[in-house]
Amino acid sequence: MSRFNLIDEPWIPVRRKDGSFAELGIKEVLLSAKELAGIEDPSPLVVASLYRFLLAVLYRALEGPTDIDQAKALFREGLPADRIDAYLEKLRNRFWLFDEKHPFGQHPNIKSDEIEPWTKLAPELNAPTKNVLFDHTDTRSPGVISPKRAARWLLTTSHFSISGGRGYYPSPSPNAMMCIPCGHDLSDTFLFNLVPYTNRNVQKGDQAQWEREPPALPLATPKRIQKGYADLFTWQSRFVQLEMDADGNVRRLLFIAGEGFENPAREPDPMQPSKTNKEYGWLPVQFQGDIATWRDFDSLLPGPEGLEPKTIQHSLTLVSRRGIAPKSMLVLGLRYEPPNANLDFWRQDHFVLPTAIAGDKSIRSDIKHLLEEAESAQTTLWSASRRFARDVVSHGNRVPDKNDLKDFMSQLPGTPAYWSMLESRFQEILHAYTLEADSDDIEHKWLRFVRRALSDAWKLQENSVSAGDAWSLRALVKSEAPIRRKLNELDAKIAEYLTNQPEENE
CATH code for 364-505? Predict the structure, then answer.
């Protein structure tokens, strides 16, 4: 018997424009998108997966857009409710979460001995083959989850499956940033991210997972190439079959390897920024373990190389005539080191997008320059901290052990405090980049922020040294010369700006 149809059942978590929270079915989310602010869930991975899933529904319902003209018409006229409604009704039987023949997002023919607890679906929770730091889920007795939670995690396991080996391929792009430009409502957000197909042939060949018959097992070909955006956004990197208990909940499931992803043309995921590599050409930009996303923010913005996410390119092309840029951008994803199946972390960052990017002026180079100034000051802080650590650990005579030096430096408060102080200031700088703003004024403001952060971070490090420890105090005084030089350098740049200002502005 078919149960829990995702078109109507409330399972997608959203935030309304009035600030209230709700759970809605697919149809209501898409048809009332103008009244919704966005998708909202405690898990960044669920948020990213739901956006990609709903975009796949739109790609199939709209059969496009196949070019920028179609995309602009959609943006001007809004999402066509009649076409969306007709598509969902036509495919209604493919959206039952529990169904004998076509369970949504699942494979109905997995061998009955491939049993796993439901936590296998969630990258952020413990499972029999992986452990997540600070998660205390008992995989032997994890309890049950509701159908709506099972549906959300079902999508997530396909988008963010990370293990390799034994025929288990990772998802198409599990280890890279996913960038979602956001509009003033969910409808605009969908249209900002609905990147046009490269041509009509690609659109005609595209299919979402629920439109196909389940492949025969075992797979004749373990890997294949994507057919289009809807195919990519509904990729089954794992084959799963949920088991419904007598109360309609999910306690366990069947779970095996799914389809491997091949990308010989190295076509970038439309949500992901790229970087150039001498050996491989382009590579997706990934989260770094100890580096906050904002420190690499210039890679997310338009530039002459065209390495920014296609979603950013498209959103700016879409609004070029109106001069109204997306108001913000979500950056979501996880980090792990292959072939390890354990996550290092998962992350969601929300950035204001400078309104200046909607005009003719490209600010990528400006922001890159500001970030380089911040990195330069941090390098000075690191150099001074390392000299201090070396003198303390060695006591001036012996060569310190590298591990001892590394451990000591990891306890120093200066560098973490420095980046923490600048992070909120960076958001302030992004607000300042309006179409009318003077880039020199913004740079002057940022240099003052950098100088203050460097000075305060070093003072914090000074205060952490015990007043009774003469050796450490001596080492601190000897190591601060690079800090003084860098502060003087920043003072000179700030003074130069003030000198060049017209008299009436002084």
Answer: 1.10.132.100
